[in-house]
UniProtKB/TrEMBL annotation:
Protein name per its UniProtKB record: Tyrosyl-DNA phosphodiesterase
Active site per database record: 229, 463
UniProt cross-references to InterPro entries, sorted A to Z: Tdp1 (IPR010347)
UniProt keyword list: DNA damage, DNA repair, Exonuclease, Hydrolase, Nuclease, Nucleus
Species whose genome carries this gene: Coemansia interrupta
Cellular localization per UniProt: Nucleus
A GO cellular-component term linked to this record: nucleus
Family to which this protein belongs: Belongs to the tyrosyl-DNA phosphodiesterase family.
């Protein structure tokens, strides 16, 4: 179904209702959302660009006790013809626009195939005359407002390269369409998959009369509290396709005053007359993920002309368990997908590394926290090892381990209330760090596993979602996950049973990648992380401080 975007108008009441639904999800423990801003009537304003009881080094010994009112949106036609020219500071004054269903629309006369995709083939037939900027894959942090450009950070403008970008597929939870359109040229065609309010019956496709912009609202089916939380990009240029997995939404806050993380790799087109490369796991997994997100088949088909053989990361996705299994495309999701990837990475190790793999430490950071327990930490840890068995001989020489024993190997990072209050950009970024107060004080909550992270950029809040597993005597080996998954059962699901493992209670659509064979080193007091011969910048330091007696997690101001 195709709907017209040129008649788009805002619906603040729908947005408020949407956010009330999110609060209900939080109360039920289904998910804790960090990617929405419900500070209605506020703006960033007054940005100040100036500037324990125990610690644990990520990779230390396992069993050592670790120490403005929202402006009225422009018509899409105006956004297309007159992209906004605003400074970063001015952009921060505008709250994100949530794309909602127009009350009135005129069905477009153009089909998705006719309006969006007729000239992709001409792109892929271009000769590969230029080198790929990121042929091996790199990790970057988003460049925070007021900080200098460095080799570790990157802006959205640098990722998109608007002057040469031909087409783009993007997915996001929060969308500010005016802001996004200002980052691409007037000739670039966009397909954006985004979250929407199911109660308004908005599933289908919205598109502009010109056919330049298409918004995809997937069919949520029977899902009660649907959340499309995935964040990925496929950017089409003349000589290559850029793949981006990130933790950042498509609105200004995530790219200016919050620290997010991105993985970028460029893949060449298969040239005319060149033998098609055998389909690799990465390419298959990517196509399946796009199908799960209801990406139009005409877009997915263009990937048949892309050579993904140089990919070295593993894709991890989540799809709600309420989704009809006949409509799913990947074999596994959430924790079970994590288990399968971990098992694959372990089997690739030599025999010397096999034993220490089962004595790994797991470090988990997300900008939202869900209802977790010691049992959940146990299950998550075991899946990170590549198994679901609660008693594993190589973890302990004899006897059966309790959930508490295994949970001691899991370290959960989260900002403290003081860090939230003292961040240099005020309430707007703080509202993106979500933790329910009553959840923390619940007797079943494993508060002893909480650690305060130290952001690499002082007084900045981290919105990235990063999971690290380290093994070896000094934790010198391991893997890193980055993407959209927060540390919540709503994102990862729970384990249904151990004999015939399956994931249940996934609520969200999520997307991320795992970097295998990561090396961790510490020399002269400085920690370095490398993968595939390149440095991996992390949004936090590799030494976490255990919560003190007076510390509590950073709570959303309305909780």
């Amino acid at each position: 179904m195709s709907r017209n975007l040129d008649n788009y108008r805002s619906d603040d009441d729908a947005t408020k209702e949407e956010l009330r639904q999110f609060d209900t999800m939080i109360n039920e423990g289904v998910i804790c959302i960090s990617d929405s801003d419900d500070s209605d009537g506020e703006n960033v304003g007054g940005i100040d660009t100036g500037a324990t009881s125990g610690t644990v080094s990520i990779g230390s010994s396992l069993h050592t006790p670790p120490p403005a009112v929202k402006p009225k949106p422009q018509l899409l036609r105006q956004a297309e013809s007159e992209p906004a020219k605003r400074s970063p500071e001015a952009k921060m004054q505008q709250q994100p626009r949530f794309l909602t269903q127009p009350n009135d629309y005129i069905p477009s006369q153009l089909t998705p195939a006719e309006s969006m995709l007729t000239d992709i083939e001409s792109v892929s037939s271009q000769p590969d005359s230029a080198e790929l900027p990121f042929p091996e894959g790199v990790v970057r942090l988003t460049q925070v407002l007021g900080t200098p450009v460095s080799s570790n950070s990157i802006s959205l403008a640098a990722i998109l390269q608007k002057d040469t970008l031909r087409k783009a597929l993007m997915t996001t939870f929060v969308l500010d369409l005016d802001w996004l359109v200002s980052h691409v040229s007037q000739s670039t065609k966009l397909v954006v998959v985004t979250h929407y309010d199911k109660s308004k019956g908005n599933s289908g496709i919205l598109q502009s009369d010109s056919g330049r912009i298409m918004i995809v609202h997937m069919d949520y089916g029977m899902q009660r509290w649907p959340v499309m939380h995935s964040k990925l990009m496929l950017l089409f240029y003349d000589n290559y396709v850029r793949f981006v997995a990130s933790s950042a939404n498509l609105f200004a806050i995530d790219w200016t005053v919050l620290e997010n993380i991105v993985f970028i790799q460029d893949f060449p087109y298969i040239q005319e007359g060149q033998k098609l490369a055998a389909k690799c796991d990465f390419g298959v997994d990517l196509v399946n993920a796009l199908k799960d997100l209801s990406v139009p088949e005409q877009v997915i088909k263009q990937l048949d002309r892309v050579d993904f053989s140089a990919a070295k990361v593993h894709i991890v996705t989540s799809v709600p368990t309420t989704q009809d299994s006949r409509r799913r495309h990947a074999k596994s999701y959430g924790l079970i997908r994590l288990k399968e990837v971990a098992n694959k990475m372990r089997c690739a190790l030599d025999s010397i590394d096999m034993a220490p793999w089962f004595n790994a430490s797991l470090y988990c950071y997300g900008s939202s926290m869900g209802k977790i327990s010691l049992d959940y930490l146990r299950d998550f840890y075991l899946c990170a090892l590549g198994t679901t068995q609660p008693s594993y001989k190589l973890i302990k020489d004899s006897g059966e381990l309790s959930a508490a024993d295994i949970a001691n190997n899991v370290f959960v990072g989260f900002h403290t209330q003081d860090q939230g209050n003292n961040n240099k950009y005020g309430d707007v970024p703080r509202n993106s760090i979500k933790f329910k107060l009553d959840m923390y004080f619940d007797e079943s909550y494993p508060s002893q596993r909480l650690y305060k992270i130290t952001p690499e950029e002082p007084n900045v809040l981290v919105h990235a979602k990063v999971f690290l597993s380290r093994f070896g005597k000094a934790g010198e080996r391991g893997w890193i996950y980055l993407g959209s998954h927060n540390f919540t059962p709503g994102a990862w699901g729970t384990i249904k049973c151990v004999d015939r493992p399956a994931t249940k209670y996934i609520n969200n659509y999520e997307f991320g990648v795992i970097l295998p064979n990561v090396k961790f080193e510490s020399m002269f007091g400085r920690d370095t992380v490398t993968w595939n011969g390149s440095k991996v910048p992390l949004p936090f330091k590799l030494r976490w401080e255990q919560y003190g007696q007076a510390d509590i997690p950073c709570m959303h101001q309305d909780y």
